[in-house]
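Much of our argument rests on the idea that a fold can be written as discrete symbols. Part of our work consisted of pairing the sequence of a single chain with a tokenised description of its backbone. The amino acid sequence and the backbone structure tokens for this protein are reproduced below.
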Amino acid sequence: MFTQVFLNGLYSSSVYCLVALGLTIILGVMDIADFAQAGLYMLGAYVTFLVAEMLGLNFFFALLLAIIAAAMVGIVNNLVVYQPVLKRGANTLIAALGILLIVQNIALLVFGPDYQTYQLPFGQGKLTFGEGSITRYKAMIISIACLLVPSVWLFLAKTRIGKAIRAVSQNVEGAAIVGISSTKVSVFTFALGTALVGLAGALVSPIYAFDAHFGSDIIVKAFTIVIFGGLGSLRGVVVGALIIGVGENMMAGFISTEYSDLVTFVLLILILFVRPQGVFGRKAI
């Protein structure tokens, strides 16, 4: 029983980690609590469904298009909405909620209010670990998350673009003095962050039924993970995702599914009272 619950928790943690990773990059660099990411999570699911199921094209090609679509929408949101709002000193939270409503209503117009489902394209077989098992597809999602986290860290730490992103997150004025364009950095930041969120939505689309409001629940958990770990802390994202993902599955497996979401809210309340700057206390990437 424990092994099965733990495996389920690893899968949940992997999905939460991908979403929270995208959020913490944007929040750590741009200081924007982008709740509109819930819409891009949903967008990733719908693009994959449209391309893989309705058009019958290769599933991995659908994943690629979902990533590109989410990144492009994220860039447009940044340039058309967030940058003008920031220049005026207005509240980006209201802008984010406005974007989310627009994206959700567009999805309603195009796909309707019904839930969409489609069969797993592959990976229906199971891998057995002791008394527990997990589908090959979910194991693939765990593997993708395990590969992407260090890859994102290496990108931010070793590449020229990554170093520019980190420089802006630490000191905007100082970065500008050495010739780093904050506008260009914001474009790369949103592209990277929203691509990760879109990928997460695309990956889970064959597993869950989804509609225009898909993503509203996971975005709350992802922000809790970001707050827990500290703004911009990649290590904090991993630890927070594991605590919530495994914790809620433990709660569901050993107590009741009705209380599984309690883990998220208890963790959020505790961290806000005990250590509001986050466990790892970072304010930049």
In short: The beta strands are 126-129, 132-135.
